[in-house]
Design a protein that fits this description.
mainly alpha; 59% helix; transmembrane; iron; Stearoyl-CoA desaturase (Delta-9 desaturase)
Length: 343
């Protein structure tokens, strides 16, 4: 069986039926799977998806403290900028373009660590990276871990139901997982540790990184603006952590055909370019599916790409040693032929 067909833990309702068609589970099936996979008492190998949602739960109190004790025009503005722009752009830079696609390379581990911890730690790299490789290989097909055609809940709870790596990988398959994650700098479990914990990352390392990251940023925010700013921005991170789970459902047009001529050139799946995610986070999703390894996905003049601005700036500073930019290829292969055909 091809590696990407079995690297993710298959949900109890399966990916496809006997005819090869996508299985669209009911809300009851999805929630049942969700809570089963969060049960660390039944199986300690469920720890990573549980840990991922534990961080979200820990951010929610900050949001309510901000909402009821520190609400003002400046904290609302700060929360908006931090959640919509800073967290969103960082997710595109770190999880998407670097960790998954290797669209650029850091000069040394220091700059990699610096970029990794540039915001409040929320999403485990392992859950994002491996499943995203599968997403690109099977986009909008059965086996796509966040297939929008299966509905909102299918995508929203995918980080628990569909994205964790399988718990029964052979040592050879696990080594392939390690090869996909090695450049991120996240310390890997040995195969024996993987068999015990069911994950690439070790719980001790993940928890220590989380505690240090959150402690550092709370102190920084407190020194800048007291508990008001700290609670505001931690609450904003919680808002983003929930909101980002809706992106692939929206970014693949809710499973419908909403691609527009002259805007969405990749017709192999249902991905679309959206103005808001593009401007605030550099997520021009249809462009990205055309050239997934490009460090830039905002190809047209109006397609602002803040993630690309960061990568380009870091390259000029010497922190990024190399990157791939497919804008020229996009212009030559798609945009110019389209304009010529319209004349």
């Amino acid at each position: 069986m091809p590696f990407l067909d079995h690297v993710l833990q298959k949900p109890s309702y399966g990916w496809k039926d006997d005819n090869g068609d996508l299985i669209k589970p009911s809300p009851k099936q999805i929630f049942s799977e969700f809570f089963k996979r969060l049960n660390v008492f039944k199986d300690q190998r469920n720890w990573l998806p549980f840990f991922s949602w534990l961080k979200v739960a820990c951010l929610i109190p900050f949001f309510f403290v901000f909402l009821f004790a520190h609400l003002s025009w400046w904290t609302v503005l700060a929360a908006f900028i931090y959640s919509m722009i800073i967290m969103g752009t960082h997710g595109t830079i770190w999880h998407h373009r670097f960790s998954t696609h290797g669209a650029f390379k850091f000069r040394n581990p220091f700059w990699r660590f610096f970029t990794q911890n540039l915001t409040i730690n929320v999403i485990p790299e392992e859950i994002y990276v491996i499943s995203h490789h599968v997403h690109h290989a099977k986009s909008d097909q059965p086996g796509d871990p966040y297939n929008a055609q299966a509905g909102f809940l299918y995508c929203f709870l995918a980080d628990v139901n569909h994205q964790p790596i399988a718990k029964d990988l052979t040592e050879n398959s696990y080594n392939r997982v390690k090869s996909l994650m090695k450049h991120t700098g996240v310390t890997a479990n040995t195969y024996a540790q993987y068999q015990k914990w069911g994950s690439y990352v070790n719980p001790t390392h993940a928890i220590l990184s989380w505690v240090l990251n959150w402690s550092f940023w709370y102190v920084v925010f407190f020194l800048i603006g007291g508990h008001a700013l700290a609670c505001c921005l931690f609450g904003a991170a919680g808002f983003w952590a929930i909101g980002v789970r809706t992106f692939n459902y929206e970014g693949h047009a809710k499973g419908e055909d909403k691609q527009r001529e002259g805007i969405d050139f990749n017709e192999k799946d249902k991905s679309i370019n959206q103005l808001w995610p593009g401007i605030v986070a550099g997520e021009w999703h249809n462009n990205h599916h055309l050239y997934p390894k490009s460090a830039r996905s905002g190809f047209k003049p109006y397609q602002i790409d803040l993630a690309w601005c960061y990568i380009k700036m870091m390259h000029k500073l010497g922190a990024v040693s190399s990157y791939r930019d497919d804008k020229k290829r996009f212009d030559e292969q798609y945009h110019k032929p389209y304009l010529d055909a319209k004349k």
